[in-house]
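Notebook p. 47: complex prediction with zinc ion.
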Amino acid sequence: MRICLIGEVLFVDNPLKYHFTWDLLGDLTKGRPNLGPLIRLEVYRLMMFTLRDTLEREVGTGASDRIFYHSGNLAGQELYRHVIKDAPNLPAFVNAVQEAMKSLNIGIFRVEKADPEKGVFVFTVSEDVDCSGLPELGYGVCTYDEGFISGLMESFTGKKFRVKEVDCWCTGDRTCRFTVDRIE
Ligand SMILES: [Zn+2]
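Predicted complex, structure tokens below:
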């Protein structure tokens, strides 16, 4: 095993003990015959924000943000591969993302601006799983969502994207707004 430091993020070469595969989501019909696939949103947020607290203490704010972003990016890629699967064009992609995010109760996804030529987009997510209803903090908290959207866009286009949350429930807005820019 080889461990290297890129920026402030530790990368460990394969074989990883915790390498993600879609199988890790499990057989929910078999495994949860009585409780089913749903848990309370508080439990998801309890895990997310305690994990973030611990990461920040262990590796610092910048590195924990990058870990959240990269994790979200991986989730976006995996969701594209296993749920969206293939989108022939932008309207089909947007439609499939909307459907997936609604059916999985992630949030209500909308496109505010799309310029595919320039690779510039603005997306919004309302009733976002990560932040809707949180206290106003003066900063956005949806770093995982930034990565998630970048992973979806990169899987769809084959290009790299930088995603930044510019409005969030935690900045006093009632929808999360993301600028999405292709990296040339
Ligand atoms: Zn947000």
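Notes: The mean pLDDT is 93. The pocket of zinc ion is lined by residues 128, 131, 140-142, 165, 168-169, 176 (CB under 6 Å).
Next step: compare against the earlier run before touching the bench.
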